[in-house]
Every structure is written in C-alpha cells, then in structure tokens.
Write a structure and sequence with these properties.
Blueprint: H1 4-7, E1 10-11, E2 17-18, H2 23-31, H3 37-48, H4 74-81, H5 87-105, E3 114-121, E4 124-130, H6 134-146, H7 152-169, H8 216-226
Antiparallel strand pairs: 1-2, 3-4
C-alpha cells in the first residue's frame, strides 16, 4: 500500500485525481497481458529510491526525474527493456540497469584527516596519517622527491640509509671487539676456546714447578698426585 502511489492513480484532499508517479510503468502494470504485475512493482520501487520524496499530498506532485547517462529517464529505459519477448532476459536486464545506477550514485564518505595512533607492533609504534586537499599534493611531492635519487631529498634519504647499513655491517670492528687486541687472549687462541676453570694468568705454584736438573716426567707425576 505504501508504494501504491507509484503505479495507481490517487485522489488528493480536494478530491482531484493525482496520476501515478511512474505513469509509463503504470500502463505496463495495469495493461500488459504478459508481464507479471509484481515484476513491474519491484522495478517501480527500485526507481523510486532514485527520486526525491513525493510531495503530491502537499499540493506539489513530482514527476519521475531520475535520468540515465544518456539524458533519458530511467523509467523510459525500463519500459523499453520490458518489451523484450523473453521475460527472463527482460527481468535480468532491468536488474542490471538498476544495479548499475545504484553503483553510479553510491557516495563514498571520506574519513576525517588527521594523525591517528594505531597501537604497537613488537618494538614499533604504528600510526595512520590521513590527508586531504592541498596536503595531499604536499605529501605526494615529498614522497616523490624522497624516492628520486636525483633530488636533494632523495640523496639525503639514501645517504642516511647507507650510513645506517654501514654502521650495522661494521659492528664488531671496534678495537675492543677484535680478539687480537684483547690482553688476556694468547696468540692463536680463539677467545671462546678458553676454559676459565683450568686457565689462569697467575704463575705456576712452587710445588708444581720443575726442580733444577730434574727430568720433567717426575714433575708431571707430582702434579697429578697433588690433584
């Protein structure tokens, strides 16, 4: 009943007759011997969503004004499509036309520009930057210059990257990090090969030293017995 005004004539408060809003589809709705009236009604309801609110009962009837890209009204296009002899094909083409018009009229709401925190990932903080208007061109220009090795900005960015990479590559090249410069390392001995439990820089105790003129084998036996 709420959509009856689209395809059925009405009477205003003063008793006058108000024509259906979609007069051409109304003729198919009431006069076509082959079309299912429910199919026409569905098309009329879909078309009405492209129209402003009807003000017929306020004394200002509004005819259908939604147009296709070619300038003709959508109602005219749908009436022509319903002339297709194959009813399934006609309904399919009407549905495709309505879907295309919905997509063409769809508006995308732009987000509010700003700088928004988006949480932490590992050891990094994540942010989202949304820019619009003149700022879009400024950001694009900065990014373009930074990515161009021929510009000063691009050279500076690459110089910073090269310096950072060089610092990472030379980690361990400091004199204190080289095994040969460590005072406690013996020549030819890898620093990780030493056993701190049995290694010492202290001199051998007197009881383990070789007495003057004594064969070395007996000293080794004495050391073993002492342990």
């Amino acid at each position: 009943m709420s959509d009856a005004h689209l395809l059925i004539a009405r009477r205003a408060i003063d008793g006058s007759t108000i024509a259906p809003r979609l007069a051409k589809l109304a003729q198919l709705y009431t006069g076509s011997p082959v079309l299912d009236p429910r199919t026409v009604a569905r098309a009329a309801r879909a078309l009405d969503k492209f129209e402003p609110a009807d003000t017929a009962f306020e004394g200002l009837p509004l005819d259908a004004t939604a147009t296709h890209a070619d300038g003709r009204t959508l109602e005219e296009h749908i009436v022509e499509l319903f002339q297709e002899p194959d009813l399934d094909t006609a309904q399919s083409r009407v549905s495709e036309l309505i879907a295309a018009e919905r997509l063409a009229r769809k508006t995308i709401k732009s987000p509010q520009p700003g700088f928004y925190p988006r949480g932490t990932i590992g050891e990094c903080d994540r942010y989202e930057l949304i820019v619009a208007g003149a700022q879009r061109e400024e950001i694009r220009s900065v990014l373009g210059q930074s990515n161009n090795p021929r510009t000063d900005a691009g050279k500076s960015a690459r110089g910073a990257q090269d310096a950072s990479a060089a610092q990472e590559d030379h980690t361990g090249d400091h004199p204190a990090d080289r095994p040969a410069d460590r005072p406690n390392d013996r020549p030819g001995e890898h620093p990780t090969a030493r056993d701190d439990l049995f290694s010492s820089d202290e001199p051998m105790p007197p009881w383990a030293q070789e007495p003057a003129g004594q064969p070395p084998g007996r000293s080794a036996n004495r050391l073993s017995a002492a342990r």
